[in-house]
Amino acid sequence: QVQLVESGGGLVQAGGSLRLSCAASGSRFSINAMGWYRQVPGKQRELVATITSGGTRNYAYSVKGRFTISRDNAKNAVYLQMNSLKLEDTGVYYCNTEPPWRTAQGDYWGQGTQVTVSS
Question: Has residue 69 got a pLDDT over 70?
Answer without folding.
Answer: yes
